Amino acid sequence: MTTTKITGVITPILTPFDDHLRFLPDLYVEHARWLLEQGIHYISPFGTTGEALSMSVQERLHAVDVLIDHGIDPACLMPGAGLCNLPETGLLCKQVAERGCAAAMTLPPFFYRDAGDDGLYQYFVRLIDTVNHPGLKICLYHIPPMAVTGFSPALAGRLAAEFPEIVVAYKDSSGNFENTRAVLKAAPEIAVFPGSERFLREGLACGAMGCISATCNTNPAGIRRVYDLATGSRSGNLGRAEERMIRYRNAVERYAPIPAMKGLLATERQDRHWRNVRPPLKPSTREETAALIQAVQG
User: Fold this and answer.
1) How far apart, in whole angstroms, are the C-alpha atoms of residue 83 and residue 143?
2) Does the model's pTM come out above 0.90?
3) Domain 8-238 classified CATH 3.20.20.70?
């Protein structure tokens, strides 16, 4: 049985591109280092925020290697690995295991919306058998607003009970905290993370381990402060810190979040490349970025 749960604030890191929309390793490593300096516990390459499904498998494998080969501790990485075909999902998960990463944050095969719990269970049994590596750890990535298919609390509990050393975490991006409560009850041995800092304080009080949030990319210190205050490792006004953190999130959510946050980084880092996104996303305008900066600083 796994004895130490993954705990803390996790950033699904944004992916920088050049003007031809090719991956930019230097900016990627620079941003990862900055996030860790700001107090982020783990980094998750190629979650939804990292434009994962706009990246090829080889690009994703390369990007994880870039981080590790440039000194980012693999033990603080949770790369995204879920696709709709088992061979490529297995290839991504195998890299995570071989390189010593904390876990592979794995979507269900989301195209197959009618698979049901039994179908998804069989898929993950086969995935685990295919990877066949003692270092494999999986974080189930539940995001029904985007993927439609998801991991029910019952399925999370079933997989965690069947594979206690492998299925170790659950990211709940349903936006429904009642689902988080149900997963905590159904799978008490795994680390459960709300997919938004809105539920960070409430989640910690109920037994969740932290949060995995897109806005950790641009407000890492603010989110880490709330985590520290809520867990008692720092003294200060928790209510005020939480209010400021949620106000920041609300401001970002008035726009398309990925382009909006990239626009913030482009301005803060004075590097236009951060504004680039792969279609079908559209880059934020400088006017939108200026309005967002005013809102988050207000």
Assistant:
1) 13
2) yes
3) yes
